[in-house]
Amino acid sequence: MKRTLVLSCLALATAVVGAGCSGDDDDGPKVVVYNAQHEQLLEELAPKFEKETGIEVELRNGPDSELAAQLIQEGDASPADVFLTENSPAMSAVEREGLFAPLDAKATDPIPAQYRPESGLWTGFVARSTVLVYNPSLISADELPASIMDLADPKYAGMVSFSPTGADFQAIVAAVLDLEGEDATRAWLAGLEANGTTYDGNNVVLEAVNSGESAIGIEYHYYWYRDQAEAGENSDDSELYFFGNQDPGAFLSISGAGVLENADHPKEAQQFVAFLTSDEGQQALADSYALEYPLSPAASLPSEVKPFSELQPPTVAISDLDGDKVVELMTEIGFL
Ligand SMILES: [Fe+2]
């Protein structure tokens, strides 16, 4: 149905050049969102925005790096109005190409300054904490390392699992790179390569640890909490471990939201991002299935999730994460 409308619109545009064929005439106001955050989260949030504003949200889903590359390739011709990511390196990549418009103060004001770039070209809207998930029948809590850097130690040979192809793990590597430097990161990755087993996806890592296939998994907090909130099938036999202490392993990864400079629906796009960061949007996010941390102090998660104030993350400037360098280092090691 949609395709027919688009095609007839194109035909019309060819016949009558510039005859105001925005696509809105048939459909009413809408916003096109390139969404690299978890699909299910936006499928919960978008209807709330639609109901409140009458603006239709069209979600086009994909991974961080793929959608960032698509935006960069499409440039001015992109149909995207809004870009949402799981992790910030993909936001920085699009920002570097000059593709974002400044956000309205209404969208940025509710979010503390450390969770958005100084440029004002995008904002964080939710955070995820790096954790270890471990299987207590294979390793006890007091045998776990004080730092994520120690997982490269031969002591942990055969014990560590992670999902290197995902943007989540790559953001953690970007934090290690920012905090520890290139040489230390290269050595750490080589140690992980020697000690580890790689899986495709963080849920698979969780399953591997829970089933006893692997002792330790590196991932974000919500995979374990979500499974617990469901039936605990893939998490009941495992535990979470938070590094805290400003360790690189306590890295807090920020999901970003921005409006494209060339948006066809700039007003609606600004409204959508402002909804995500508003008290209402942040609380809706906290109440959703996601169990990721809202960034506005006005919202809070259910009490079973470790409080945001107790995470003790390291200080990582949100614009300093170098996704390209991470891909280079991980390719060198053979992870990608
Ligand atoms: Fe994730």
Question: How would you portray this structure in words?
Answer:
The chain is an alpha/beta fold. Helices cover 40% and strands 16% of the residues. It has 13 helices and eleven strands. It has helices at residues 2-15, 24-27, 39-53, 64-74, 88-96, 105-108, 167-180, 182-195, 202-210, 221-229, 266-277, 279-287, 323-333; strands spanning 30-35, 56-61, 82-84, 100-101, 123-134, 160-162, 196-198, 216-220, 239-241, 252-260, 293-294. Strands 1, 2, 3, 4, 5, 6, 7, 8, 9, 10 and 11 form an eleven-stranded mixed beta sheet that branches. The two termini are 39 Å apart. The model is unreliable at 1-24 (pLDDT under 50). The chain binds fe (ii) ion (FE2). Fe (ii) ion (FE2) binds next to loops.
In short:
The chain is α/β, with parallel strands linked by helices and 336 residues long. 40% of the residues lie in helices and 16% in strands. The chain has helices at residues 2-15, 24-27, 39-53, 64-74, 88-96, 105-108, 167-180, 182-195, 202-210, 221-229, 266-277, 279-287, 323-333, and strands at residues 30-35, 56-61, 82-84, 100-101, 123-134, 160-162, 196-198, 216-220, 239-241, 252-260, 293-294.
Secondary-structure content class: alpha/beta
**Rounded average pLDDT:** 93
Helix content: 40-55%
Uncertain ranges: 1-24
How big a fraction of the residues is strand?
A: 15-25%
Q: In this structure, how is the largest beta sheet organized?
A: 11 strands, mixed
Q: Which ligands does the model contain, each kind named once?
A: fe (ii) ion
Oligomer: single chain
Q: Total strand count, please?
A: 11
Radius of gyration using CA atoms only: 21 Å
Shape: globular
Distance between the termini: 39 Å
Tally of contiguous helical segments: 13
Note the run of SSEs as H and E.
HHEHEHEHEHEEHHEHEHEEHHEH
